[in-house]
Every structure is written in C-alpha cells, then in structure tokens.
Amino acid sequence: MANRKAKGEEKVELNMTPMIDVTFQLLIFFIVTMKFRLLEKKLLSHLPTDFGLNNSTDIVEENFVTVKLKQRRDRPGKRLAEQSTQYYIESQEIEGRTKTEIYQKILTQITSFRTQMKDAKGKIDAGRGVPHQEVVSVLDLFHKANFESITFVGLSTTKNVIDGENWFNKLRTELRAPVQ
Questions:
Q1: With 60 as the cut, is the pLDDT of residue 55 above it?
Q2: pLDDT tens-digit profile of 62-120?
Q3: Does residue 61 contact residue 119 with C-beta atoms inside 8 Å?
Q4: How many angstroms separate the CA atoms of 123 and 101, rounded?
Q5: Does residue 90 come out as left (phi exceeding 0), alpha (psi in the -120 to 50 range) or beta?
Q6: pLDDT at position 29, please?
Q7: Beta strand extents in the chain (DSSP E only)
Q8: Which pLDDT does position 18 carry in this prediction?
C-alpha cells in the first residue's frame, strides 16, 4: 500500500457534467410528456359582484332560488363550533333534527324548483360566521339538483364602508393630535 502512494498514483475523478446533462434531459422529457388530469365535475360558479352601495332589495329575480345560511347567535358564551346554523329557502326556515334531514329537505325543494323552471339559477347567501363546510354542502346540493349557474351573495357593503370610514376618521384624528 505504501509503495502505491509512493509511486505517485493518480486520483480517479468522475466527470459530473454528462451525468447532470442526462438528468436535466430526463427531467425535461418527463415534464413535456406529462398529461395533467382535467378537472372532473367542473362547476361554474359566479362570485359576488359589486353593484356599488345600493343595498336595496327592490330587484326581484324570478328564476333564482336562494338558500340562506345564518349562524344562530342565541347561545352566548358557546364556542363557534357549538353554534348551529339556520337554513332558509327564500324566507321559509328549514328545520330538522339532523343536518342530513335538513339537507334532504333542501335538496327536495330546490329539485322541485329546478323541475318547474329549467333555466333556474341557484343563489347561496351565507352570513358571517357560517362554517365553510356547510356552504360547500349546500353547493353540493345545488350540484345534485343539476343547477348549472350558482351565485354567491356577498356580505353587505354598507357596514364595511361605515366601518372603514370610522377607522379612517379615527386614524386622521390620531395623526392630527399633538405629540406629547
């Protein structure tokens, strides 16, 4: 062993450039040949649109069926997860012992509305604090009832604008106040 080192044997070096080239060529090949799965059961939904500060409900849409979800706040001190949600179709409250029963009643009513009007559109009005899971469950019900157009109603803009103005006025007052 000592003789080999003494004779000045050369070190073996691997040239990494061809290996890196092959790796990048394989990477490019797999990226180019990969086929992405198309979204299955794609559902067109329209997000809320802003109509300015006009919050009047004078506009009556005849071919819309509205499912409204409200967070029940009659139990102060309870955690949000323990609160319950109230369901309405138009202005009629849907009641049931279990969520499955409530969902079945909603599905029955929106399906009958859909059979009466073939061009019917769905509208989901979820209030503040309603869990997303319940909104998605109602969206699934509209999908099962073969609604092609579903609209989500946004929160009232008047309250948001008033809150923003109050915050801005408070900030302006604080900035104008003399520093002590």
A1: no
A2: 678 888 888 776 555 555 444 578 888 888 888 888 888 989 998 998 888 888 888 88
A3: no
A4: 21
A5: left
A6: 94
A7: 45-46, 64-71, 85-89, 92-94, 121-126, 150-152
A8: 92
